[in-house]
Amino acid sequence: MIFGYPLLSVAIWLPIFFGLLVLATGNDRNAPLARVIALVGAVLGFLVTIPLYTGFDRLTSAMQFVVHDEWISRFNIYYYLGVDGISVLFILLNSFFTPLVVIAGWKVIEKRVAQYMAAFLIMSGLVNGVFAALDAMLFYVFWEAMLIPMFIIIGVWGGPNRVYAAVKFFLYTLLGSLLMLVALLYLYNQSGGSFSILEFHRTPLPSMAVQVMLFFAFFMAFSVKVPMFPVHTWLPDAHVEAPTGGSVVLAAIMLKVGAYGFIRFSMPILPDASHYLAPVMIALSLIAVVYIGLVALTQSDMKKLVAYSSISHMGFVTLGFFIFNAYGIEGALLQMISHGFVSGALFLCIGVLYDRVHSRQIVDYGGVANKMPVFAAFFMLFAMANSGLPGTSGFVGEFMVIMGAVKANFWYAFAAASTLIFGAAYTLWMYKRVIFGAVANDHVKHLHDIGGREKLVFVILALGVLGMGLYPLPFADIMHASVNDLVVHLNISKIPN
Amino acid sequence: MDMQTLYLIVPLAPLVGAIAAGLFGKWLGRTWSHRITIALVAVSFFASLAIFQDVMEGHIFNGAVYKWMSSGNTSFEVGFLIDRLTVMMMLVVTFVSLMVHIYTIGYMEEDPGYQRFFSYISLFTFSMLMLVMANNFMQLFFGWEAVGLVSYLLIGFWYTRPTAIYANLKAFLVNRVGDFGFLLGIGLILMVFGTLDYQSVFANAHNYVNDMAPIPGMSVGLLTAICILLFIGAMGKSAQFPLHVWLPDSMEGPTPISALIHAATMVTAGIFMVARMSPLFELSETALSFVMVIGAITALFMGFLGIIQNDIKRVVAYSTLSQLGYMTVALGASAYSVAVFHLMTHAFFKALLFLAAGSVIIAMHHDQDIRNMGGLRKYMPITWITSLVGTLALIGTPLFSGFYSKDSIIEAVALSHLPGSGFAYFAVVAGVFVTAFYSFRMYFLVFHGEERFGKQHHDHHADHDAHSTSSGHSDNDKSHDHHHGLAPGQKPHETSWVVTLPLILLAIPSVIIGLVTIEPMLFGDYFLESIFIGHDHHAMAEMREEFHGPWAMALHALTTLPFWFALAGAVSAWFLYMKRPDIPAAIKQKISFIYTVLDQKYYFDRFNDWFFAGGARGASGLLWKFGDVKLIDGFFVNGSAKLVGMFSGVLRGLQTGYVYHYAFWMIIGVSALLTVRTWFE
User: How many domains does chain A have?
Assistant: First the structure.
């Protein structure tokens, strides 16, 4: 506890409190007030997380800013929070995006404004809970609760096919989570009646069969969220139907909790099964990179294209984790953060176009640069970041994961590096058809360039993308101790010889 | 000011210019945008000069600027290696860039994207300097991709033209294919050496001569694998066969950048890179052989294509391809200093030729077809003379800069004993004739003979407009590259001083730079610390013994084959295009088969479009429709939803709400249970 207040608790409950406050403004007559309260809450929510970074002790891999209180003592369930070098950045990333989403939805959302803003604020708090929870039950509660606001966002403010997408999203992710609950209960018994995740890390699991089964249970929960091939098909549908803000949070934040699950639960709790099943995980990751990269090429809907691109980029994350070296794991974590910036920014770019033309189809555009040069410049930057250009954040993670993959097996790197070609092909081909060329139709002819509010959001994201690309050290530095510790831990077998 | 600050100023000054013109261009206006960018590039040039002097005094710098990232036990840094090779490249880059910046004032005069253009070329200068000044592979890759980005932006500068935005995407993707190999090569280096710092890698390379590459399923030497992977990167950037396809199309960009990026500097990055990596390449003869053969193919076969081009810029572009092939051949022959020497002379005379071509294009009101020109020497004397100088340098006329570098390449190949050197020697010697032929064909058609302008002219886009599918040349097209051709009766006239001054300033080194620098660069110890040559590669040593000063070399050349080949090429061009223009037409008729193959550029574009682009799109559609839509979503996801639906439908059917239905099912259930029970008893 630094600065006299429990930082992590505040990071979780402050946005939720403001969310409830926004809800209290009621119907759309008070929309302006709701927007202001939401913005204040979101900005405050970000500001309170900054001490997590500045006050972080980089020399230790231990949990920091720990809060440990009674909750349901009968089952040894605690209100137990803490962050290490792996989770701290995601709390910052999540809190960083909430104000952006609020600003992005400022004018665009006209119906049920308070409810919309509240959903995002509440979700922001719940996601912080997921990253901060050190008690498995607490984690599970946040994990499931997080689904509800997203379900509502897609189902209420979404596109024409929103109900199908929302239900698909909900069922897909819920189904996986239930198996995780079973695994958590098993571990509770095995650890002698504790739900502490750190206790799980130490719990002996001498049977490979048991480890593999537990791994499968966790896999079902986490792989859907990442999403990994072949359980990825909910994502394109969810993105296409979600409103812009929903897509941004979905891509930038929600996908990260799945990958986080692997590195917080599966790998340290089940080191032997992780090694044993690594070839499968790597194969699925590489399929995601190559297959999904190819599938993205012919998408005619921009959001779908970026959704597939997200899956392909998340393939790098799972690949980096399961090659078990520091390059790979740190590269994967950096890729997660960068993907937050880049995919979030790309969905916002598409949102800008959608707000004006009300179409996401590539064929409805062409020559946008003639009418929106400032927008085209930002979009170019983010498209290049998505193609992994050095100097942008997109490069750092991919570079490190490929370097790690060469170490593991040259051919992994060979397959992964194909993203250099496919990633550039689908991104820039879309860019070419939408932005370049002569003015294609009347809609494009009447476009007006981005205004101050949109520019503000893009400038912030551009600074993030370039800053992280040119100087990733501050991002990597904070995770070294925890990652090195994890790499060591992963090599200690839980199965006695 | 200490040297380290000066090192920083060299790349950062153009970056500041790029940011100023790019972000505040509207506010600065046209004049101030070009003043600021030009001044800053000039600062960069003079700083490079000062550094040159310092380096010549023996001060070599190798150090970090800042720590970019660290992971495991490795730290990745951004840093500079300033030695003689670097400083030579810095001078070439900043000088040509400065010339091009000045020239742009005239060439882009009417373009609405004026500030954007200055921003891009300054950004390019920054990226290229980061590339050549790097002291590690990570930063090299940064510069490598950054110049690719700017090249992409500049080829597509006139983004309303379908051909331009096709060409820039193609250029980026083909380069990415090269970078794919390059990155894997870097990966192997990091894995084996544990660092990406040049000096530590070079110092330890000899320990791995006998190691095999850690590539499962392939038995290939470690250093061979690394060198070939790195060279694949060079093949993309330096447009070597078969990754050359992007360079001719890149001519869609404005002419100043064709000179700066696609002739003088960026495309030579691959050559520079291999020269920089000489301590690695010297340890793998297989890789050197590979390099030499690829270079020889490029040098000869791309030269042939230059013969039939009618677009003035494309002739120069194919000439660039061919000359890059020459440099690559020299690399393969372990004559790195010769390759870099040719890189330098070529930078001057090829930038000159491109800018002269641009001057002609301005005078012709943006008609680029040499069939519509002729007799221009009367109207544009400065362009004419400087073009002649550039052409003479290109074909290797004794005493001109190109002569010293090209003759040395031929000499070095003759002395090489690697597999493939026989073919390479044939290619570079035959290439001399071809070079002289297409160069003088263009020269005569443009500057001599009948004045063909101001008449009904061929559409200059006719022979490369295959890709323009839609009517991109519509009325809202503001770029000035479109109203081409002179009106009937209109005469061309010499361009303004901002255009001709760079021509003159480039013509001077095109003549003398070879004569002045051959001795220190090739046979002195200029590259002593920068370039490493293995003990069993004797070409350079033997050449040094035979060298008796630049004048003697020029005199001696009069008795050798290449000189007579060049002369023959020039004379044949004169005969065929000035004296008897009916003969080429007849030849075209007679051997139309060969003409078609050349016209189709050996069918590479067709094949790539069909196989790679079409194949990827086809695979994409197939995987998506069958993999994602049908199999996963259709069968598993919606299938299981349907299954649940069916099952619950059945259950729902059972719950009719009638008590006697339930009673009936209860009786059946009870009797079934009783039956089961009796079985178990």
Answer: 1
